[in-house]
Design brief:
GO molecular function: DNA binding; transposase activity
Number of helices: 13
Helix content: 40-55%
CATH class of the largest domain: Alpha Beta
CATH architecture of the largest domain: 2-Layer Sandwich
Protein name: Transposase IS116/IS110/IS902
Strand content: 5-15%
Radius of gyration: 27 Å
Shape: globular
Oligomer: single chain
Strand order of the largest sheet: 3-2-1-4-5
Largest sheet: 5 strands, mixed
Organism: Nitrobacter hamburgensis (strain DSM 10229 / NCIMB 13809 / X14)
CATH topology of the largest domain: Nucleotidyltransferase, domain 5
Number of domains: 3
Distance between the termini: 23 Å
Pfam families: DEDD_Tnp_IS110, Transposase_20
Number of strands: 7
């Protein structure tokens, strides 16, 4: 397994006199670049068009200014907050010899004034301060985001596209049922294959056929529904082909192993592997924290209370795990985790609270299963595929 990176602090010693530090405040229309250049008293700030080549030229110019002050630049580091632009800029800069980092946006502490001033220039100054603290190896300034490769990012697309298509399918079906309910028609299932054939024969309680405009609208909705259904099937078939073509690759082997757990489908297994289990997370706490399944304590003086789930992680993983936890109770009744859940709820604990705890424990158990081969106690597996 690849070495786990500690993204909470830098493990490289910082020689500030020979390091050029740069941060960027990214936006759709412009980039505001701020730097700390050795040998230069001021902190230069420059506004650029969203152009990576112009950014590279600016960094080269600052390097030349430092060298004119007899400061040899041996290291160039750059950081920006995670956001709309993703990770392409970090990968592009790393290919050109610049240490690029992506700062986790929620890890940067901000002032708690009621109406704090917020401008791009102030944001770059704040990013520069926390980035400097991170480079010094001090904990608590900020956290960095692991920069995925093109292949790792692309591998997430099928599962996310399928989730979007399933949501669109549900919205179309609900719209059709709502339109029919306004005419008093209930019990019609537009998701069935033969629903378009039965649409023209539908009658209202008054014995009237569907109005012409509504009928045409329903036919168009069913056409879209049929197209979405075909696209979902295409995504699922492409996934099977990918698993058959490279069964020994690390993500595919993880997916195949997870799918052997009775109650875990191939779609859920693929989503968990691509979103969380394939990442080089440090320990079980990091796994639970990435899914947002950890608590949010509020303690001050004698006050002790729990505000609920942090929900600071991957919402897609969190939703899938809550659903999987309920299925797990149905298909793995004799497992140790299911017995633990029944024992706690039998003592009076709320089921909705304990299902979240079960989801957290289940995620950690599956993570151990695909990383070190430790099968959860009592979990029944399908025969090897």
């Amino acid at each position: 397994m690849p070495a786990v990176d500690d993204l909470s602090r830098s493990l490289t010693a910082l020689a500030q006199d020979s390091t050029l530090m740069t941060v960027i405040e990214l936006s759709k229309s412009s980039w505001l670049v701020a730097g700390m250049v050795p040998g230069i008293e001021r902190h230069p700030v420059k506004k650029l068009d969203p152009d990576p080549v112009a950014l590279l030229n600016l960094v080269s110019r600052w390097r030349c200014e430092a060298e004119r002050k007899e400061r040899r630049i041996e290291r160039v580091v750059l950081a920006f907050e995670a956001g709309r632009d993703g990770f392409w800029l970090a990968r592009w800069l790393r290919e050109r010899g610049i240490e690029a980092y992506v700062i986790h946006s929620t890890s940067v502490a901000v002032t708690r004034e009621h109406r704090r001033a917020k401008t791009d220039r102030l944001d770059t100054a704040m990013l520069l301060r926390v980035f400097l603290g991170w480079l010094r190896g001090e904990r608590g300034h900020c956290r960095m985001v692991a920069i995925p490769t093109y292949e790792e990012e692309d591998a997430k697309r099928p599962s996310r596209e399928r989730e979007s298509l399933v949501g669109e399918r549900t919205r179309i079906i609900n719209r059709m049922k709502g339109a029919l309910a306004r005419l008093g028609i209930r019990g019609f299932k537009p998701e069935l294959r033969r629903a378009p054939e039965k649409l023209s024969a539908l009658l209202t309680p008054e014995g009237e056929l569907l109005p012409s405009n509504l009928l045409e609208e329903m036919r168009r909705e069913m056409t879209r529904l049929s197209l979405i259904r075909e696209q979902i099937v295409a995504i699922e078939q492409a996934r099977l082909v990918r698993l058959q073509q490279a069964p020994t690759s690390r993500p595919n082997a993880m997916t195949t192993l997870l799918a052997r757990v009775i109650g875990v489908g191939l779609e859920t297994a693929d989503m968990l592997v691509q979103e969380v289990l394939n990442r080089n997370l440090r320990d079980r706490r990091a796994v639970a924290r990435y899914a947002g399944l950890t608590g949010s304590p509020d303690e001050s003086g004698s006050r002790r209370r729990e505000k609920g789930l942090a929900k600071a992680g991957n919402a897609r993983v969190r939703r899938g795990l809550i659903q999987l936890a309920w299925r797990f109770l149905m298909f793995q009744k004799d497992s140790g985790l299911a017995q633990w859940y029944r024992a706690r709820t039998g003592q009076g604990a709320r089921k909705t609270t304990m299902i979240v705890a079960l989801a957290r424990k289940l995620l950690i158990a599956l993570w151990r299963m695909v990383t070190v081969g430790e099968v959860p106690t009592g979990v029944v597996l399908r025969p090897g595929m």
